[in-house]
Amino acid sequence: MTWVAASNYPGQNADADQVLIGNGNTVTLNVDITAYTLNNLVIGDNTGADDILLLPNNGDFEVNIQTLAVESDGILEWVKNADIRFPEGAIIYNNGGTISTSKNCNASQVIYIGNDKFSTCNGNGGADYSFDDIESALPPPTSDGDITECEETPIQTLTASATPPAGAYVDWYNASEGGAIVSPTLNTVGTVTYYAESVDSSDPNRKSIFRSPVTLTIEDSPTISISSAPACNFLTNTYALEVTVSNGTVTSSDGTVTNISGNQWRIANIPNGTDITATVTAANSCATDLAIAAPNCTCPAVNAPVSEGDQAYCTGDPVPALMVSVGAGETADWFDSASGGNLLQSGSTSYTPPGPGQYYTEARNTVTGCRSNSRTPIILTEDVPATATMGPDQTIWVSSDAVFSVAASNANTYQWQVSSDGGTSYTDLADDTIHQGTQTTVLTIKNAQIVRNGYRYRAVVSNSMSSCPPFITNPAILIVRVRSVITNRQPTYRVNPF
């Protein structure tokens, strides 16, 4: 048998995604592999015969290999002393094979990843791991793939997934090394990368050295809305409208689309009676559709209803009705969106919704059935009432200060009150030489005298932005003690416990 130099080698060409050493072959590494990046080098074909990648003595080789896997019949072997250098971010793992040396195991048999001395045969010389550490560790999980989706309404939740080796499970982390265990989900616009680590189901201390990254991305979807309602052109038997988008390019299922300026678009020359779908597509390829109903171009103009105002109610109170006014001979229909959507109530200028939200109403001529080209939005808000808990009664010596406090939620306005008649009536307090903090959560009674013994204090809390009534706390009692009692015989001093 005659050996000749190879004209090329596995991984030399740009299209070599994976190289397998198998069929009982021994490959000796004697050149750098730097012309192109080799994504995967697999040693061993799992058929039983030894498949070997051999590093000659005193070799020092740089290889652009992203992943090196040693399978059950694979051997990564050092003849004696040699260095092999992988790029930053490379992964090396053993899947039942052998990583060893045919000579004395020492710190001169080295695997580098980037500038880091990742492993030596005996784990010395500043290496992170020994060859035995690599052999005993689990392979990292196999990523089930990065996920990229466009934002939906309501926004979706993406979940990363990866497949662990047999007999193992996956723990997810927020970093490639260290970090914290997390739930690998994303439900906001943006990008996040999670890292999957293999853990032995029988021995949780046996894990993979490397973690597999999985990236989740939710792209921002553009918005589109009608900015100028559909208007009829009675001369051409067509109608036109304008839309406003957050970004991107507008197309339509019918009509002629023109960019007026910036994010304003006009869709014209739409045949009468033809409903259309306008679509905005952003640079990230995310798209949003808007269904637009054709106006009745045989009808005279009908003005949109006039709102009698947005409404608000307090949690637990009856839901108020939304009210509008319309022209003579007209009524109102109620919907859940500015165009299209679901009919909520027909033929009434008032509507009582099931709960908070934004509702829309359009006017309709009761004789001709003609409708307004736009709908009037009305907002119903549910306000959460303020609540508060009064602190304990206060017992002090005469001429001392007493401090009362309340713990409040959903409140931004406070008013302290006092009752001197046992709680029959209360009076608002204002800051003066005796009272401080009368409009805060903490009230201080300065230099309290015996006359205030038995006074009751309470707080009225509310939220100035809410429709809910104020909340009045239970009262707390001020108890003023006298330090001594003087009789007509001799002074008797008493210390009274609280």
Structure in words:
By secondary structure, the chain is an all-beta fold. The chain folds into five domains: 18-136, no CATH class; 142-219, Immunoglobulin-like; 226-292; 306-383, Immunoglobulins (Immunoglobulin-like, Sandwich); 387-481, Immunoglobulin-like (Sandwich). It has one helix and 47 strands. Strands 1, 3, 5, 7, 8, 10, 11 and 12 form an eight-stranded mixed sheet that branches. A hairpin with a 7-residue loop joins strand 31 (330-335) and strand 32. The chain starts with 17 loop residues before the first strand and ends in a 6-residue tail after the last strand.
Lay out the secondary structure.
Layout (H helix, E strand, L loop, with lengths): L17 E4 L4 E3 L4 E11 L7 E5 L3 E12 L3 E5 L3 E5 L4 E4 L3 E4 L7 E5 L2 E5 L8 E2 H6 L5 E2 L3 E4 L7 E2 L2 E2 L4 E6 L11 E2 L3 E11 L11 E8 L4 E10 L4 E8 L3 E4 L3 E6 L2 E8 L4 E6 L5 E6 L13 E2 L3 E4 L7 E4 L4 E6 L7 E3 L4 E2 L5 E9 L10 E8 L3 E4 L3 E4 L4 E8 L3 E7 L7 E2 L6 E2 L5 E4 L10 E7 L8 E2 L3 E6 L3 E2 L4 E2 L6
Parallel strand pairs: 1-3, 2-4, 3-5, 4-6, 5-7, 5-8, 6-9, 7-10, 11-12, 14-20, 29-35, 37-45
Antiparallel strand pairs: 10-11, 13-16, 15-18, 17-19, 19-20, 21-22, 22-25, 23-26, 24-25, 26-27, 28-30, 30-33, 31-32, 31-34, 34-35, 36-38, 38-42, 39-40, 39-43, 41-42, 43-44, 43-45, 46-47
